[in-house]
Design goal:
about 90 residues
Length: about 90
Amino acid sequence: MYGYKCEYCNGTVRPRLVEREVFKHKKGFVILENVVIGVCDGCGDRYYSAEILHTVHEIATGRRQPERTEAVPVAYAGQAGVAVPA
């Protein structure tokens, strides 16, 4: 499945085992642990198999139960980096 050219920099996409990968889904966030993904050896762009994306969708929509649930801190940052007139 890996060994193909990156669509952005023409590097090679290689398999990499990652400890945690976070996915944003329209229903929320899903974290997969100890998952093999494709990573470009040139630019670092990440590639995911259809199987991984189906798993994320199933967990996010409740069709598959996660191993556990973790709380995610949320804070309002305002307009970080934008000067506010006095």
